[in-house]
Design a protein that fits this description.
By secondary structure, the chain is an alpha+beta fold. The chain has helices at residues 2-7, 43-53, 71-74; strands at 26-29, 32-37, 59-64, 77-79, 82-83. The strands form 2 sheets. Strands 1-2-3 form a 3-stranded mixed beta sheet, with helices on one face. The protein has a two-stranded antiparallel ribbon with strand order 4-5.
Length: 84
């Protein structure tokens, strides 16, 4: 199982219901995570992610997603301050 292998190298955290979070809703820019609030990621999941990453110096900002499956369907970070 992938989780067992990864756990050898890094601590793993799991979201608990009713939290949901889709990787396609997360855009990282340096230590800022922008998380799409979509049909796949909800406020409970975003709050849990915020609590998990805060000790590592990351911030989490929820972004409403409409007209797209998830945040990365609508945009992506290209680097050097460019968001497409």
């Amino acid at each position: 199982m992938i989780a067992e292998t990864l756990a050898k190298y890094r601590p793993l955290h799991r979201l608990t219901p009713p939290g949901t979070l889709d990787g396609g809703d997360i855009v990282r820019i340096d230590r800022a995570l922008y998380v799409g609030r979509s049909t796949r990621s909800n406020d409970a999941g975003i709050a849990q992610l915020r609590a998990i990453v805060a000790p590592f110096g990351y911030t989490v900002t929820a972004v409403p997603v409409t007209g797209a499956l998830h945040l990365k369907t609508a945009c992506t970070y290209a680097g050097r301050g460019t968001l497409l």
